[in-house]
Amino acid sequence: MTTVDAGGAVAPAWRGGFGRLWSAAVLSGFGDALRTAALPLLAVELTGEPLLVASVTACGYLPWILFGLLGGAVADRVDQRRAMWAVDTVRGLLVAGFALAVALGQASIWLLVALAFALTTLQTLFDNAATALLPALVDHEALGSANARLMTGQRVASGLLGAPAAPLLLAAGTAAPFAADAVTFLAAAALVASLRTGPPARKARPSGSTLRREIAQGLRALGRDRALRGLCAATALCNIGVGALIATLVVLVTGWLGAGDAGYAVAVTAYAAGGLAGGAANRWLVGRLGRVRAVLAAGCVQTAALVVMGSVRSLAALVAAMGVFGFMGMVWNVNTTTLMQQRTPAGLLGRVGSAFRTLAVAGAPLGALLGGAVATAWGRNTPALLAAAFFVLSVAALIPGRKPDVPIVVPDDGATTARAAR
Questions:
Q1: Which domain holds residue 38?
Q2: Which of 249, 318, 321, 385 could link 308 by a cystine bridge, Cβ 3.0 to 4.6 Å?
Q3: What is the pLDDT of residues 166-211, one digit of tens each?
Q4: pTM for the complete prediction?
């Protein structure tokens, strides 16, 4: 593992494996953006039934709820590097086969639903393995910077590169975005396969150990650590709020504000730009506040931004609030992920990380349904205020974890303020 000193804060060096992992993540983000843009358009071409079209999106959530915890347990059992490149190879072949079916006119809505379900099911293993692998590639004191670079690179690839490229590829044919996605999967698999991390060092599993028992062990580890409990609860609560906002943002902008499609595009762009700025500024912010206080500050500022969105009837105010929301959202994501990695024993990273993701994914569709219900009952601006209420609860869930009652499992990185209480 290699690190460099960047302005008094430790940052990961690009050599030593992190650069290849970053490149694989950016490639995958680009391909995912192409596929995500093409899926609903193809679904509408294949069927006029809204329920079937919606089922394609639902399959992006369901496997996390069904298999998220299982994927974390498997990630803790296997060599994460091998699991990641094997999964990306399988996903690349699946998408390549689907692209061929589209090109030959043999695609159907049910094949599309099956593809979405299969890809997300495989993703439950890939993402949990990636969370567990990163600490093996960079020193613990560089985890914050590594997470920021990974998330910012993925945001650039998906938002600034993938989204504009999707219409260009679609002009070349409906199969083109899927073919390009398959190429990115296979290229990412080759990059991950080239890593030289060696097999993970693990204690031998006790006799009679089962996946169910190992999942339960991970959940107990999460429950025993007050800081991790708070982070997990806060993540679940804020994602309910995010789900409510994102699902109804278009009606907030076009209906309540009357800003039309152009206003919606500006709002979404402001959110993406804010996220990129947040990734770039995260190290500076953590250096001033500490990692735990940075998360608390992010939650508080996001709450204020949501109140502005739901109460100030001005497109300029909403665009500014969306930029701030995206900025602090990136700060939140980078630092909650880093704190989870730092506080979790290496052998449990997959299982604890899967609990975070499963709760986050489950919260989003629940929030979307709540947002739609309150918008119908009380007005198109109310989902933003509902989201603000969930963010208040999220910040409250974080407060008890400021002084965790379980010692951190790795040396503190000089930015984390959450130290063991004595």
A1: 3-194
A2: 321
A3: 778 888 888 999 999 999 999 999 999 988 766 555 555 565 677 8
A4: 0.78
